[in-house]
Structures are given as structure tokens and as C-alpha cells.
UniProtKB/TrEMBL annotation:
The chain crosses the membrane at residues 9-27, 104-128, 135-161, 173-192, 231-257, 277-296. It comes from Marinomonas communis. This is Peptide/nickel transport system permease protein. PROSITE patterns: ABC_TM1. Belongs to the binding-protein-dependent transport system permease family. OppBC subfamily.
């Protein structure tokens, strides 16, 4: 366990530096006048001219060399200072903490709904098989092939515009969370129910499970004592891999539903060329990915019925 935590700590440092550096290079490589775009975000596109852009350039020091700007960012990062937004002037860390809560709420709700959908469907298709398994396989394949923003648009058309059950977009009430979370959940459940199906079918056909049934245990007793933990370990491990889909989906879903999370803020920051906020948001996502994968590894360690240790 100690080796795992040390490995993850080193990975966290490498990810922080790599994500920040790559983001810096990509933003500096974009065409166009960065000062003009920032001035347009501050004052409006109609009120911006070359003089306003020059004032912004001088104020923010955008005329300094790339190496000087990178070194300043790196030294600020070592002191946990993410700087201030070039558009609003607010500290990036405060903006990110505000957006992080909304993103975690959306991601947590989406993953919870996905598990509520995937677990019974995956277990049922593994236990009964036949036409149920074929139908779920077809539906899962189609759902996975459809981009997450298309699922979101269909959800808006059906549940918001046609049936008028939930708000189209925004934030403020629990009803605003339903469509974004459901969109993310459907995209996640399309894969996770098949993983649960595969692992459950493997366990149900294993010799130790058949021996448990031969001892006289009921189907529920055999599943409770010999099935749940053996199925849970690979499923929880897969959730760590699926975090990539969560991060990808959150960025698009937040933009689609105007959800005030990190993905929505990142999209606006890219359009406005707000480099500190872009670097901070990308850095936050990278850190979250490493931390959540560490928690998944720890959970697998304690769920493993063999009591094995993590190398």
C-alpha cells in the first residue's frame, strides 16, 4: 500500500507538470492576437480596437517572451499559486473550487445512476442470457456508438421540450441536475453493464461458485458470499478506466446544459484565451484523475476476496 501511494504521488507530480506544460504550449501556439481576444471578452467584441488590445497586452505582460512567461507560471505553481484570470481578474483557485463542486456533483450523480442501471441489467443478462442478453448487447452497442452530446440533445428534446418535465439547461434546483446526470449515466451504463455481465457470467460458471451451490446454499446465499466480491473487483477496477469517459463527458455535457462546472468554465476560458484559468482547469482534471484512480486501487485492495496486496 505504501508503494502504491508513493507511486501515485510521483505520478501526480508528473501529471501536474506535464498537463500544465502541454496546455501552455498549445495555448501559445493558437493563431490570432491573444490580447485582442481577452479584451473582447472583457469589454465586448463591438467595443474592442487595437488600442484596447495594446492596453490589455501591456497590463497583463503578454508581450514578454514564452520562456519568461513559462518560468513565471512554473515558479507560481511550486508555491501553489495558479494566478488570476486574465478576463475577470479573480483568483483562479477560487474559481476552480467553485466549479469543482458542481462538476463533482454531476459526475457523482451520473455514476450513481449508471450503476443503478448497469448492475441489475448486467446481472440479469448474465443469469438468464438468451434474448435478454442479445437485446441488451444491441442497445449497449448503439448507445456507446452515439456521442454523448447527441444523447443529451435527444434527452432535451424528449424530456424538456416535448414532455416539459425538466428544465432545458441551467442550475439552481435539483430538477436542473436530472438531464445532465441522466445523459452522463446512459453513456457510462452502456459499457459498464456489459463489464458486469462478463464478470458475473465468469463467476456464475466458476468451479468455486458451483461448489457453493452443491453445498446446499441458495442462489442468494451463494451470490452474497461468493459472488458479490469476486464480481466487484474487476468492475471497480473498470470504473477507474471509465473515469476518462467521465471527464470527457463532463466537459461536453456541462457546455450543452450550461452547468457551471469545470468543463463549462474550461470551454469559455479557451474561447477567451484565459491561459491561467485554462491551465488551472486542465491541472485540476489531471489531479482528479490521479486521485480517483488511487481511491479505486485502494477499494480493489480491500474488496479482493483473496486478501492480496497491491504491489
Amino acid at each position: 500500500m505504501r508503494q502504491l501511494l508513493l507511486k501515485r504521488l510521483l505520478q501526480l507530480i508528473a501529471v501536474s507538470w506535464g498537463v500544465g506544460t502541454l496546455t501552455f504550449i498549445l495555448m501559445r501556439s493558437l493563431p490570432g492576437d491573444m490580447a485582442y481576444r481577452i479584451a473582447a471578452s472583457r469589454y465586448g467584441m463591438d467595443a474592442v480596437d487595437s488600442r484596447a488590445a495594446d492596453i490589455v497586452r501591456e497590463e497583463l505582460g503578454l508581450d514578454q517572451g514564452a520562456l519568461s512567461a513559462y518560468w513565471q507560471w512554473f515558479t507560481d505553481l511550486l508555491s501553489w499559486n495558479l494566478g488570476n484570470s486574465l478576463v475577470s481578474g479573480a483568483p483562479v483557485s477560487e474559481s476552480l473550487w467553485h466549479m469543482l463542486g458542481h462538476s463533482l456533483l454531476l459526475a457523482g450523480a451520473g455514476m450513481a445512476i449508471a450503476l443503478i442501471i448497469a448492475i441489475p441489467l448486467g446481472l440479469a443478462s448474465a443469469y438468464w442470457g438468451g434474448w435478454l442478453d442479445r437485446i441488451l448487447l444491441t442497445v449497449s452497442t448503439v448507445m456507446r456508438a452515439v456521442p454523448v452530446f447527441v444523447i443529451g440533445l435527444l434527452a432535451v428534446i424528449v424530456f424538456a421540450l416535448e414532455w416539459n418535465l425538466f428544465p432545458v439547461a441551467g442550475f439552481g434546483t435539483p430538477a436542473h441536475l436530472v438531464l445532465p446526470a441522466l445523459t452522463l449515466a446512459l453513456s457510462l451504463a452502456a459499457i459498464s453493464n456489459r463489464v458486469i455481465h462478463t464478470e458475473a457470467k465468469r463467476v456464475f460458471g466458476s468451479s468455486f461458485y458451483e461448489f457453493a451451490r452443491m453445498k446446499g446454499l441458495s442462489p442468494w446465499q451463494a451470490f452474497k458470499h461468493h459472488g458479490i466480491r469476486n464480481i466487484a473487483v474487476p468492475v471497480v477496477a473498470f470504473l477507474g478506466i471509465q473515469l476518462i469517459t467521465v471527464v470527457e463527458g463532463v466537459v461536453m455535457i456541462e457546455s450543452l446544459f450550461s452547468w457551471p462546472g469545470i468543463g463549462h468554465g474550461l470551454a469559455h476560458a479557451i474561447f477567451a484565451r484565459d491561459i491561467p484559468l485554462i491551465q488551472g482547469a486542465a491541472l485540476m482534471m489531471g489531479v482528479m484523475f490521479v486521485v480517483l484512480n488511487t481511491l479505486v486501487d485502494i477499494a480493489c485492495h480491500y474488496l479482493d476476496p483473496r486478501g492480496g496486496r497491491i504491489a
